[in-house]
Known about the structure:
With 93 residues, the protein is mainly α. It has one domain. 47% of the residues lie in helices and 0% in strands. It is built from five helices and no strands. It is globular, with a radius of gyration of 13 Å.
Amino acid sequence: MTSDADGMLLREVDKGLKIVKEVSEAFTDSRDQRFVEHSLESMLKQIIYGLCLGYEDLNDHDNLRKDPAFAAMLGHNDPAGSSRKKKSDIGAW
């Protein structure tokens, strides 16, 4: 159960309009891609979707990273985070 089920509608609207994708393409990702686990687009989705759902503080996002429903909303293939690279991140996405 989640109180953020309306986030799935938000995801579908964004998928159709491609707003976050276009915004992410306006940035240059200068991170070393060998060590990148989350794309710039994925991180922007987390911030934007979280803000739209009323999670305005980054402390809220620390809790959201352990929410499988939020991970599914963002399109993660492993919402439970069981295949994360770092042991300390397992169980979170």
